[in-house]
Amino acid sequence: MQAIADHIAQALAGRRSPPLSTEGAASAQWILMDFGDVVAHIFRSDIRAHYGLERLWADARRVRLPAAQAVASPVAPALATGKTTRRARTRG
Hints:
The protein has 92 residues and is α+β, with helices and mostly antiparallel strands. The protein contains 5 helices and 5 strands, in the order αβββααβααβ. Strand 1 and strand 2 form a beta hairpin. The relative contact order is 0.17. Mean pLDDT is 76; it is low at 71-86.
């Protein structure tokens, strides 16, 4: 998990986008990296199942990203899932 978090931080550091905060790294169960508009959650598989983020975000509106934008991300190779949609929760 720490290697994944380090890779994300390194890739975004090249774009001068360091995380605003990082939490959970000491627990060795989950890491949350807050980049402002984007939050990266890195979990052990059993902890991911416990928290069930997909259930929490099930009501979120899907936002389709252009394929070029999804591939252009510096962390896309490490995080590629083959999906070109992301979930976005609107505030308000």
